[in-house]
Amino acid sequence: MLSLKMFSPINLHSNFEPEKFYHVIAKAVDGINLFTNDENKSFFLKRFARYIPGFADIYAYCLLNNHIHCLVKPKSVSEIESHLKALPKEGLTITYKKFLENVAVFDFDELIETQFNYLFVSYVRSFNKVYHRKGGMFNNPFRCIEVKDDFHFTQLIIYIHANPLKHGIMKDFTKYHWSSYKAIISQSHTLLKREEVLEWFGGKEKFIQIHQEQAAFYYSHNLSGE
Fold first, then answer.
1. What is the pLDDT of residue 224?
2. pTM (2 decimals)?
């Protein structure tokens, strides 16, 4: 069962700590499009699957043309240490090596933030190569908001999944292909913490029902934490 404190204030600029929940928001520079087609979104998710699961558990995500939302929980220090030790030595970056050399004092926030930056840089390099462009695409730094209470956790998952509704992309957000909503209610393989999410909502039927009932409420009351 997920464990969160109740009714704590939202800090819009949080530092990553082990085994806490965070809303990560990465927005495009000057509102440019991060994705020009579905192939771009698919490629980003492949990069996401490569760079993040070894360092953080993933609970929800949504890709929009000019920004990205995800809900993650950084793993424990020991889990990340084990993950890095299992990698080939030639695959260890300078940051990874420094972390392994002195786990006890290494800046955990720096480690997770660097990992997200690896993800974004990897995507941008590939995008720039394909489209013959130069320069960054993501605002730096990206936004990181600690999830402090049960209410925030619940509404955040709904908010992330219903983001296509907020931005007028489609009225039925449950049919949007580039969020984690479909993966959570499906039986297909996923890197998401699907069982934990469904248990939190009281099962798949409750998960669907609560999304349908509350998505419009959260948007109309501006409860996104942004």
1. 47
2. 0.89
